[in-house]
Amino acid sequence: MNLATKELIGRLHFHSLCAKRHWNFLSSETTINSLSAPIDDWFQLSSSKAVFLDRDGVLTRERSDYVKTPNELEVLPGVGPPLRDLRNMGFRLVIVTNQSVVGRGLTTDEQMARIHEKLQSELKRMGCSVDAIYYCPHLPSAGCSCRKPEPGLIMRAAKDLG
User: Fold this and answer.
1) Which of 40, 54, 85, 131 is flagged as catalytic?
2) Which domains are present in the chain?
3) Per-residue pLDDT tens for 57-91?
4) 65 a catalytic residue
């Protein structure tokens, strides 16, 4: 594993620590009971290997004023090789990201689709790809099940991608 891959995994580890109480959801009856998906759905999910990546601060430069247009999206240098390494290790790559910029009315779902098209294009130029991108458009105060650290986006990706 090269240094760039180790650095990306380090950034992923930081983000997973921030959401640790839900990443261990199978060991917590309270967390399982709070999910909107029936418990039976948990056991029907595939055992495929996947890495769930955050977008801002992991793959792209984080902006204090949010990414509102494709022109504002800046892919971090050096993310291509570690993503290729993860893919070569047999992992599916899925982006799960909170994007309250939509809920704040600073951009639209359509514009977010264009932002993600640019991200996919930039990653392709670097010789890699992701299997899917999922985002939560809600404000932090919304209390939805799709805003990280809640596991809603990960559960939806697992069901969609098998």
Assistant:
1) 54
2) 3-161 (3.40.50.1000)
3) 999 999 999 999 999 999 999 999 999 999 999 99
4) no
